[in-house]
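Components:
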Amino acid sequence: GAVVSQHPSRVICKSGTSVKIECRSLDFQATTMFWYRQFPKQSLMLMATSNEGSKATYEQGVEKDKFLINHASLTLSTLTVTSAHPEDSSFYICSAGGDGYTFGSGTRLTVV
Amino acid sequence: SQQGEEDPQALSIQEGENATMNCSYKTSINNLQWYRQNSGRGLVHLILIRSNEREKHSGRLRVTLDTSKKSSSLLITASRAADTASYFCATARLYNQGGKLIFGQGTELSVKP
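Structure:
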């Protein structure tokens, strides 16, 4: 079946630095990938839709300059959290696949 | 809010009992899915039910969908301690944008041995 790999699984960074998270489709091509954020004990909130070869589409309230998305190939989308602050600490998870229903294993970001 | 509602928010049962979780949503949908998430981990896709289906089974899972009430239920029969996890429903809207999902608030299930 379809496999989506997400890296890193955990990252701790200092306030003000940037962090890049990768989402790869391992055995299929994905023209579209999705990025979600999940705060502790809460549900997943869609942040943006990543489109291969074009600009990402951001959900209302998500700062595009803070959460940079690049989908430069059919198997890789990256989410960069720029100038990270403690309030950006969260679980970030991507999905891909023709129906978008295969999820990566998530990245736990802690900003200190 | 884009989120749907799930109830209960938390459910604690004994091994062998059945667990029922409910989900309500707000918009017309193409399909509804249930996912499982172990603590701090990724999501596992459990089952998908299309808007023209009313019930679907997969092993110990039974899902129902009532589009007139905009609600769904997930039944896990003969629960096991390994079923302990959070369960989320997610809807793909009608004229879905290729995989964009709206998640419910989730139910935290605890199955005690």
